[in-house]
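Bit of a strange request maybe. I'm writing a small parser for structure token strings and I need a real example to test against, not something I typed by hand. Could someone generate the tokens for this chain?
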Amino acid sequence: METSLRYGGDSSALKINKTPTTSNNKKGPQTVRYASDASGSALKIYAKQKFHIDSNTRLQLNGELDTRIGAPTFFSALLRYFPPELSAKIGAGLQYNKREKLHYTMHGKKSFPLTPDQFVNFVIKGRCDLDKEFKQPTPSGAAELVWNIVDFQKDQELRLKVGYEIFDKIPYVQVRENNWTFTADANGKWNVKYNL
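Reply from user aminoacidic:
Good idea to test on real output. This should exercise your parser:
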């Protein structure tokens, strides 16, 4: 499925056009994000595509376009591995963003179920970005309590997340309902995301 969005200055100009996909051409989920922070509001178009290499490995491509400046602000290519014996995710790859340009990135995430049905989990995740010369590591990490509520109402799934960014010392919350996700932190940054 190909999805295109147009933003012309106000919400009435936002249009979504969908082109059906063929059975051989599977596309990943596209995301629309409207965010607010100290630099102002912007509609961002985010796309993700996953290519399965084997049952535990995939190549993941992510990209983001900021409609305020009319240019890409983020792109990454990650090789992600899911070791089944660890219930974890690890990944490494390249990332580009408008501030730090091209750099290397490594990710890790581990979930610890707190209930037998695994609907409530304690999650730790970490990330380290490195410049091209491997001289300036930029670590980040978080601890999260995640509660997944299946069939909250008919055809409605809900995920509640409370987290703490360890290096920046910022608490945050996230509420996800089917395709809508709202995230806010203690610094006043927030974003709303809709998965198409």
